[in-house]
Amino acid sequence: MAGDDAKRNEKTVGRLKSRPQFLAVQKGEKRKGRTFLLEVLDRQEPETAARAGFTVTKKQGNAVERNRMRRRLREAVRLKAGFAMQPGHDYVIVARRDVLDVSFEQLTAQLLERIQSKPQPKRPGESRSRKV
RNA sequence: CCAGUCGGCCGGGCAGCCGCGCUUCAUCAAUGCCGAAAGGCGAUGGGGUGAGGAAAGUCCGGGCUCCACGGAAAAACGGUGCCGGAUAACGUCCGGCGGGGGCGACCCCAGGGAAAGUGCCACAGAAAACAGACCGCCCCGCCACCUGUCCGCUUCCCCGGGAGCGGAGAGGCGGCGGGGCAAGGGUGAAAAGGUGGGGUAAGAGCCCACCGCGAACCUGGCAACAGGGACGGCAUGGUAAACCCCACCGGGAGCAAGACCGAAUAGGGAUGACACGCGGCCGCGCAAGCGGCCCAGCCUUUUUUCCGGGGCCGUCAUCCGGGUGGGUUGCGCGAGGCCGUGCGCGAGCACGGUCCCAGAUGAAUGGCUGCCACGUUCCGCGCAAGCGGAGCCAUACAGAACCCGGCUUACAGGCCGACUGGCAAC
RNA sequence: CGGGGUGUAGCGCAGCCCGGUAGCGCACUUGACUGGGGGUCAAGGGGUCGUCGGUUCAAAUCCGGCCACCCCGA
Q1: Confidence check: pLDDT of A128 > 50
Q2: What angle do CA A13, A14, A19 make, to 5 degrees?
Q3: Is the CB of A104 under 7 A from strand B?
Q4: Protein A126 CA to nucleic acid B367 C1', in Å?
Q5: Ramachandran region of residue A46, left (φ > 0), alpha (ψ -120 to 50) or beta?
């Protein structure tokens, strides 16, 4: 309510909800993290807020574990990682099972790193070859 | 104290910081914003409330909703299956009965019908189900052989005896034929009541005793069934989670059910205006008509023409109905929880009091931290009980999705009660 | 969330209705033909029938309970 800066910071990380939105982000840039896969799409609308979505497939665990993964990621975005997101961009975090085991500090650090970093100079073939 | 059986219950607690869903109150924002509409929406602060015993698997039963149906019944199909009760109902639960297991507490059982019918019973075996007869046992007849007895004849040594031949009848073994039998053998999961005695040519429920089986009837019980049992005289192998028979139950789908609001685009119908189409073939149809193809026409592609490709065979306006996305609803006062009293062996039922207890929809309960409790491992002290320190991401299985009653499955650890068998003490 | 289906050899499938012997194709092994490969021929090995119980003399098959995978309804 105070200045522009506070208003921007105040939260405003929206949420992706519908299936077409997820499919659109899937076509964007993919950044592989240690415990997750981050998908980023520039919507070309810098005025709007950033939006985040979470994907946890049924393969990663039962309902309790899937809920916990999503909640931990959501909390990490709310507390830290959300501030690093660019306005007008969509972010989808595809969780892996390791999200359950890693400590919360490590999780936020990894998320921050992948959100801020521009695409790494990485051989794309290698990142795809390793599958868990 | 040890070992065990059964039943019930809990399934971390407190606190701090930052957050989430629903609801409510106050203030501000509202002649506001989003949306076609329906409808929805903000900020700050305060209050209330917020996962389970299995929320799971979706295996049964109901409520609720829509569809179908004249009522009802039958057939078909599916399910259930000792008896009685509980219940809204059940394949669940309770009590009993029968069978099996355990020293016992107690546990397990799809537990109707095989003298209604059909099917199947591999291999082995003679034979696998109105019995039959391989080996075998017995009797009779015929044939052959052997053994010994008796008689007659011949011959030899002194009437006695030996040898040979013939005959008679007996016994044995073998073969063939006829008849009787089912005790024994072996096979098999299973072989046609069991044991003993009599009996017989040999045998056999052929007869008898005991046991088993069936069973009129009697007694007890609501019943399943239990006890007794005249009599029968061994007939009736197993399999129904094989077909089947009998009794009872069941219409189908499921909240993504269903209801309401309802654009754009496409398509349907009606009316009106304008324009106008001439024809051929095929299919469906009684017909009206509908659909498809071809020719012609128009537009487009090409610099132009022809060929070829694509498009149009009506257009526009208004209205109507259906309806996708979307929104709202269904959506939590209920076969409800707790307490008490009474009835009942019990499952439960009745009455009284009291409480309101999740409603999300890319889906709310989370993240971080401290202390405590309990568990476990290691170390130190101690005779021991125990104490101190450190570690274990230690604390399971697991997340409401319309609701309820059950079943099944998963589950770290712990608590309570009843009972059984041992040991010790009194 | 709801509704269906399938698990048999390394792979793809029969066998299950009506219970007694688990079979087919490809692949694999060995041998022969060839200088070698390929190919052909001959012989051969390999299966807890997903798992746990039950019925039966006997279960891949019949009946329950679990497990895994696949498909359908936005």
Answers
A1: no
A2: 140
A3: yes
A4: 34
A5: alpha
Give nucleotides in strand B with any atom < 7 A to a protein C-beta.
18-19, 43, 51, 362-368, 393, 398-400
Question: Sign of the C-alpha dihedral, residues A70, A46, A29, A114?
Answer: negative
Query: A89 - beta bridge partners?
Result: A42
Please state at what angle helix A104-116 crosses helix A63-79, rounded to 10 degrees: 60
- Residue A18: nearest nucleotide (C-alpha to C1'): B362
pLDDT, one tens digit per residue, over A7-32 is 333 345 777 777 777 777 877 888 88
Q: What is the mean pLDDT of residues A111-116?
A: 86
Q: Which amino acid is at A39?
A: E
> What residue spans define the domains of chain A?
9-114
Task: Indicate if the alpha-carbon torsion angle A32, A33, A39, A40 is positive or negative.
Answer: negative
**What CATH number was assigned to the domain covering residues A9-114?**
3.30.230.10
Q: Are A42 and A119 in contact (CB under 8 A)?
A: no
Distances A13 to A38, A69, A89, A116, A125 between C-alpha atoms, Å: 16, 19, 10, 15, 32
